[in-house]
């Protein structure tokens, strides 16, 4: 027999999936749910925790539980896809806002991530990605000038990968990625439409050319409710 909290969980998830409860709707309070389902506070809290863990709601301290938009964009973990290609695949209206574009000397952090020396130069590109009129990705890209000698605002607004592959005739081959969940910074809160979220999903990527030259390091910061990170795996025998 299903536990009481699981019945509450199923009841609410079905209503969310059928759009009987729409995104951003505030769920009844714990006291109201105790009365509605004739259960204890502990049972209600177990159901709410399960709903939050599985991405159906966001609990905001002092305000209550709010329904998330479960129609998230698929972000391929194992693939190497530009934002332009991703937006075209999603069929969504998108915009790229270039916040910074400059040639800099690498600090210790960038020297470590791009395997550079102090004499090298790096293109720093900060871009905000907008999908469906919401600013939900902050991309912080760093390119070794040795491989990408020139960048313009126009190139950065369109697709740097298109420019690298079709103008510079370089072959982008593979990447190593690390995904973490971090506290949103003051910069994230200023540049992105984070609503009430104080956490952000960070994808750190090292990108290599066909000859295994490391040419790019990126930190891509995503609003947590808008993306579903997907992968395909096959068991090796």
Automatic annotation (TrEMBL):
The keyword Transcription applies. It holds the Pfam family GntR. One of its GO terms (biological process) is negative regulation of DNA-templated transcription. Residues 2-70 form the HTH gntR-type domain. It comes from the Bacteria. One of its GO terms (molecular function) is DNA binding. The keyword Cell wall biogenesis/degradation does not apply. This is Trehalose operon repressor. The gene is treR.
């Amino acid at each position: 027999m299903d536990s009481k909290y699981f019945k509450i969980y199923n009841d609410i998830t079905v209503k969310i999936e059928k759009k009987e409860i729409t995104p951003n709707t505030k769920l009844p309070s714990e006291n109201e749910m105790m009365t509605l389902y004739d259960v204890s506070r502990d049972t209600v809290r177990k159901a709410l925790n399960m709903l939050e863990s599985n991405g159906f709601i966001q609990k905001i301290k002092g305000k209550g539980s709010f329904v998330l938009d479960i129609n998230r964009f698929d972000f391929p973990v194992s693939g190497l896809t530009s934002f332009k290609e991703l937006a075209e695949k999603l069929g969504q209206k998108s915009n790229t806002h270039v916040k910074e574009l400059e040639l800099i000397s690498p600090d210790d952090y960038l020297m470590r991530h791009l395997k550079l020396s102090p004499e090298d130069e790096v293109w720093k590109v900060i871009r905000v990605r907008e999908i469906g009129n919401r600013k939900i990705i902050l991309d912080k890209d760093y390119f070794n000038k040795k491989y990408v000698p020139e960048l313009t605002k126009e190139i950065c607004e369109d697709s740097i990968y298109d420019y690298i592959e079709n103008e510079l005739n370089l072959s982008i081959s593979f990447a190593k990625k690390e995904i973490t969940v971090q506290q949103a910074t003051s910069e994230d809160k200023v540049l992105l439409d984070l609503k009430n979220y104080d956490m952000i999903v960070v994808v750190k990527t090292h990108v290599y050319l066909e000859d295994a030259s490391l040419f790019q390091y990126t930190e891509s910061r995503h609003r947590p409710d808008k993306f579903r990170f997907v992968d395909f795996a096959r068991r090796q025998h």
